[in-house]
Amino acid sequence: MPVSGRASIPEATVARLPLYHRCLTDLQAEGRTTVSSEQLADLAGVNAAKVRKDLSHFGSYGTRGVGYDVDHLLVEIASELNLDHDWPCVIVGAGNLGSALASFAGFTNRGFTVVGILDVDPARIGRELGTLTVRHQDDLRDIVDAEHVAIGIIAVPPAAAQDAAGRLVEAGITSILNFAPTVLDVPDGVQVRDVDLAVELQILAFHEQRPARERPAG
Amino acid sequence: MPVSGRASIPEATVARLPLYHRCLTDLQAEGRTTVSSEQLADLAGVNAAKVRKDLSHFGSYGTRGVGYDVDHLLVEIASELNLDHDWPCVIVGAGNLGSALASFAGFTNRGFTVVGILDVDPARIGRELGTLTVRHQDDLRDIVDAEHVAIGIIAVPPAAAQDAAGRLVEAGITSILNFAPTVLDVPDGVQVRDVDLAVELQILAFHEQRPARERPAG
DNA sequence: CCTTGTGAAGTAATTCACAGCC
DNA sequence: GGCTGTGAATTACTTCACAAGG
């Protein structure tokens, strides 16, 4: 279902844009000025025709015989991804995972700033994590309002996840990244992406032919 | 590309099996004995026809007019996913993320045990993480051999990821879960799954219509 | 030349809709 | 009556292959 006002870009393409963005950032850092669809495809680990079709969806013009201008393409993709400004995020749950995410370099670099981390456990509240201090869950709305937060990250145990989602929605959050292994129920207009780390391992396990016992070791 | 010896199951189905597995585990814990495709679909947040088609791929028999036997279906799916035994895993990188993963309850519960965590930084080596002690990267092969590890988890900075992958492959690992934002080059027969947390946020950002500034706050 | 952009072909995944069985 | 299992229809995605432009 296309978002009104913007020509619809296939979901599969959207999922690859961040990948191209990453590769282009690397190329730019190396001082490269142009890149062909084939080179970009190699870097991104995909097929060259796919790169061209993906980029064609938002009318980004390469130059035939030459390729794409790295700087220009990067700006285009960043603009498509709404990365021309930084996104403040708030994390609910200051356990192992939440705490790690709060100081995770991989976010800060790529357009996202964690502006708050919350918990309900008094033992965790007040703890310092880099420049952040763990605050009480009830401060959620204040933080969201003060920092104009649109993205919430759920890093609580599964039993608490639905409650956390409700509070985030209540506070005005419209996008949720959910690390809890639970299907969240949220109102229309709020988008959820689930990251279940065990699922990823289970998919790997599926494709492992040999059972672990039979490895050519002992 | 189907794995020899097993009837090919579509990748999209494989990716959902862990989700069904999770929901069925919950149902079982609640004491439910049967479930219809529609109920399971609701829990998993997908369409009922999809559930039926997915399950039909490995010939799991439900009962018409009744539904599926929870226990039986759970065993079937676990068996498809090779979850009838536990999978030992090793983590490379004992920074924030690696350390969090090492003590992450979400793995242990679901068929995966972290049996080792490694780093190169002397400041981290020897550190205690729950029942584990951070060891030197050079101990990788010993751990893999001793514990019959087939799955490696990369949680190092991007610049070190390819090297880590090479060492894992060298040590005999055939499946890699990669948290570093880099496309890894590995030999045929080694499978990689990438989890780039910033990518997930970027996809959310894409779908956010309003720029963060324009929220109805101040 | 080389490389893009894109119709057309091919493949995969989803959903429909209903026959068949409990 | 209710629910599964599945062919058929639909939709989405990928890949090919080539015309057109630098």
CATH homologous superfamily (4th level) name of the largest domain in chain A: NAD(P)-binding Rossmann-like Domain
Structural class of chain A: alpha/beta
Overall geometry of chain A comes to elongated
What is the correct CATH architecture of the largest domain in chain A? 3-Layer(aba) Sandwich
Measured between the Cα atoms of the first and last residue of chain A, the distance is 54 Å
Taken together, the total number of domains of chain A comes to 2
Q: Summarize the largest interface: chains and residue counts.
A: A-B, 75 and 74 residues
Structural account:
The structure is a homodimer of 218-residue chains. Chain A contains nine helices and nine strands. Chain A has 218 residues and is α/β, with parallel strands linked by helices. Chain A has two domains: 11-80, Arc Repressor Mutant, subunit A (Orthogonal Bundle); 87-201, Rossmann fold. In chain A, the strands form two sheets. A seven-stranded mixed sheet of chain A has the order 5-6-4-3-7-8-9, with helices on both faces. In chain A, α1 packs across α4 and α2 crosses α3. At the A-B interface, α1, β3, α5, α6 and β8 of A face α1, β3, α5, α6 and β8 of B. Chain A binds a DNA duplex (22 and 22 nucleotides) through residues 10-13, 36-38, 47-50, 52-53, 55-56, 61-68.
Could you give a quick summary of the protein structure above?
The structure is a homodimer of 218-residue chains. Chain A has 218 residues and is α/β, with parallel strands linked by helices.
